């Protein structure tokens, strides 16, 4: 009998850690998928599921929305609207365009979804980018005016020659839709990275926040100017180092000023926005960069649940109210 009780005691001892922790089952290994989409590198990592179909469908969502929002893909809805081939908007394109127009208003027109006539002249993805002819830029400037875009009964109208370009906001919108899908499928721990637009779902499975770095401009890929602890929020950075080139000793970057048609000239190297929704972070990081530090901070501090850090070309970090907390 003593041997029997001794055996039972040993068995119970072996299972004691499982009883304390609630389960012997280990959390699944993270699954991840990377692909080149939306003209950038897209990576989705899920920490609490081993269902790879979630990754596959996330990538399919990128393709679906690119076929709505792309300015250059001939099959896309935006391309066809710009060509005058259609006016009726899908619900998703109408929603995104309405959001873009709202940010155009609050930024004083610096965030402008009608910047297409000028942005189309600059090809930062070319093997050897070149500065467009100044005459072409000056001819395109009068066509940039978000105030001339009208949406009525799910149709859009605008002046002849105007071109929509939603590239400064569409990745944020797409990231939000991927998060929405994954949450509906029961995912509670994941990171969605659309070429630097990072959107977190929850925390790590152990409860610790995700750590997201703010890149040090022009430094090695692994170099960070700062690191953020992020729980269930979006981190979006707009910076001069993302798409750029030098011609005749002059530096050019992709953050174009709709009033001049040339890259915005100010003291900033980047703006990083922490927000609940990536579409807001996308629009605000661009808007605040174009607005400059003083006006950009004023805008951020006027908005609820939004924080930002401005990184100057001299390497100074300037935080909005509450960011360092």
In words, what does this structure look like?
The protein has helices spanning 2-21, 52-69, 77-82, 91-106, 116-119, 134-140, 170-184, 278-291, 293-301, and strands at residues 31-37, 40-46, 150-152, 155-157, 190-194, 197-201, 210-215, 224-230, 234-239, 244-247, 250-253, 268-275, 307-312, 317-319. An eight-stranded antiparallel sheet has the order 1-2-5-6-9-12-13-14. It has a two-stranded antiparallel ribbon with strand order 3-4. A hairpin with a 2-residue loop joins strand 5 and strand 6. The chain has one domain (31-319): ApbE-like domains (T-fold), CATH 3.10.520.10. The longest helix is centred in the N-terminal third of the chain and has 20 residues, at 2-21. Helix content is 34%, strand content 23%. The protein is globular, with a radius of gyration of 24 Å. The chain is built from nine helices and 14 strands. It is α+β, with helices and mostly antiparallel strands and 325 residues long. Helix 2 packs antiparallel against helix 7 and helix 4 (91-106) packs parallel to helix 8 (278-291).
Q: What fold name goes in the CATH topology slot?
A: T-fold
Q: If you compute it from the alpha carbons, what radius of gyration comes out, rounded to the nearest whole angstrom?
A: 24 Å
What count of helical segments does DSSP give? 9
Largest sheet data: 8 strands, antiparallel
Helix content: 25-40%
CATH structural architecture:
Roll
Instruction: Determine the mean pLDDT.
Output: 91
CATH class: Alpha Beta
The proportion of residues in beta strands is 15-25%
Low-pLDDT windows of residues: 1-24
- Can you tell me the number of structural domains? 1
CATH H-level name... which superfamily?
ApbE-like domains
Cα distance spanning the termini: 62 Å
Order of helices and strands: HEEHHHHHEEHEEEEEEEEHHEE
- Given helix and strand content, the structural type is alpha+beta
Major sheet: arrangement of strands = 1-2-5-6-9-12-13-14
Number of strands: 14
């Amino acid at each position: 009998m003593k041997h029997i009780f001794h055996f039972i005691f040993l068995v119970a001892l072996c299972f004691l850690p499982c009883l304390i922790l609630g389960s012997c089952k280990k959390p699944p290994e993270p699954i991840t998928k990377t692909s080149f989409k939306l003209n950038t590198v897209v990576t989705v990592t899920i920490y609490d599921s081993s269902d790879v179909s979630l990754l596959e469908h996330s990538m399919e969502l990128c393709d679906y929305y690119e076929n709505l929002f792309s300015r250059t893909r001939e099959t896309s809805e935006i391309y066809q609207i710009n060509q005058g081939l259609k006016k009726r908007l899908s619900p998703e394109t109408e929603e995104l365009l309405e959001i873009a127009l709202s940010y155009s208003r609050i930024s004083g027109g610096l965030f402008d979804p009608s910047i297409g006539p000028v942005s189309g002249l600059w090809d930062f993805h070319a093997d050897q980018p070149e500065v467009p002819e100044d005459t072409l830029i000056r001819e395109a400037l009068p066509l940039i005016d978000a105030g001339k875009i009208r949406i009525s009964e799910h149709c859009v109208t605008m002046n002849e020659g105007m071109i929509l370009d939603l590239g400064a906001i569409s990745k944020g919108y797409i990231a939000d839709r991927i998060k929405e899908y994954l949450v509906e499928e029961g995912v509670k721990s994941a990171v969605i990275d659309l070429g630097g637009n990072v959107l977190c779902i929850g925390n790590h499975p152990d409860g610790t926040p995700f750590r997201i770095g703010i890149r040090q401009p022009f430094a090695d890929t692994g170099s960070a100017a700062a690191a953020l602890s992020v729980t269930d929020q979006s981190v979006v950075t707009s910076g001069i180092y993302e798409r750029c080139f030098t011609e005749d000793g002059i530096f050019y970057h992709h953050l174009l000023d709709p009033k001049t048609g040339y890259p915005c000239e100010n003291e900033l190297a980047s703006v990083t926005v922490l927000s609940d929704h990536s579409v807001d972070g996308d629009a605000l990081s661009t808007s605040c960069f174009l607005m400059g530090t003083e006006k950009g901070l004023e805008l951020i501090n006027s908005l609820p649940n939004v924080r930002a850090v401005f990184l100057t070309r001299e390497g100074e970090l300037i935080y909005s109210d509450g960011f360092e907390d």
